[in-house]
Amino acid sequence: MRVVIVGAGEVGFNVAENLSAQGHDVIVVENDEARAMKVESDLDVMLVRGNGARPPVLEEAGIAPGCDVDILVACTDRDEVNILACWIAKRAGVKRVISRARGLEYTDSPTWARELGIDVMISPERSVAREIEELLSVSSAVHTAEFFDGRAGLYAFRVSEGSPMTGDTLRRINQRYPRLTALIAFVERSGTGLVPFGETQLKAGDLCFIVTLRGQVHQLEELFRRERTGQLRRVIIVGGGKIGFQVARRLELRYRDLDIRLIDQDSEKCDKLARELERTIVLFGDGADEELRVYEG
């Protein structure tokens, strides 16, 4: 697969490194000389120096009408560069384009991505906020990811001692719980991994990655961990940046009776947050202040 990556920051560098290690043909476009030199010295990829939003630079990377590039990933720290690079690539015939977008307005609705022809537009802040929300809801999960607008998700549970998931094959467990819709996609065991099948038997300590419906996740949690996450009553968020704001807003939408408090030491930001959030109590103060945290519960 031929992949062009625009931006060699932390995200772009790691994506390029992983794809190159898997044997893909990777071209990295980078405008910053220090980052370009690091790519040149550390990675086995083709490097193009220049601004990834400029057509001549992208053409040098192989993006032109009739090109054979399969994917373009634009992950610089400038939304405008990422969006324009994707727009140019899509019109040149690149099969799939993925853009990073730090500005929340770009991912408030799918309209921006759809009208620009961008296949996937990812907001790092939204992704982190979404995972925090799910980890609060399912506290024994090690990892989470959301699918289909939250109707389903990927959850990683570690099998506890005495779990009913041990001592029998997955085929028989499925017969025992016929109303439970779940697929164990991968099992991490003793530093190695395996793709399970019907005769696989789980062991205590296994980390299982499971795709299931959100409405059934707490039943799964009980099977794997022999416990269920208690009802959330109060959440205190320290920091009113993009991630803090997103976490508060998502919790407001999901939990009507939850007591949400957000602490930030920027008075202007607190005023803005108080206007934009409906049920969150916004507090002006230092989140590192132990007395304040104790006072707020």
Question: How would you describe this structure in keywords?
Answer:
about 300 residues; Rossmann fold; six-stranded parallel β-sheet; Alpha-Beta Plaits; 11 helices; 14 strands; single chain; five-stranded antiparallel β-sheet; alpha/beta
What does this structure look like?
The protein is α/β, with parallel strands linked by helices and 297 residues long. The chain folds into three domains: 2-122, Rossmann fold; 140-225, Alpha-Beta Plaits (2-Layer Sandwich); 234-295, Rossmann fold, CATH 3.40.50. It has helices at 10-21, 33-42, 55-60, 79-91, 111-116, 124-137, 170-176, 217-225, 242-254, 267-276, 290-295; strands spanning 2-6, 25-30, 46-49, 71-74, 96-100, 120-122, 143-147, 152-158, 182-189, 192-194, 207-213, 234-238, 259-264, 281-284. The strands form three sheets. It has a six-stranded parallel β-sheet with strand order 3-2-1-4-5-6, sandwiched between helices. Strands 7-8-11-9-10 form a five-stranded antiparallel β-sheet. The chain has a three-stranded parallel β-sheet with strand order 12-13-14, covered by helices on one side. α6 (124-137) packs across α9. The longest helix is centred in the middle third of the chain and has 14 residues, at 124-137.
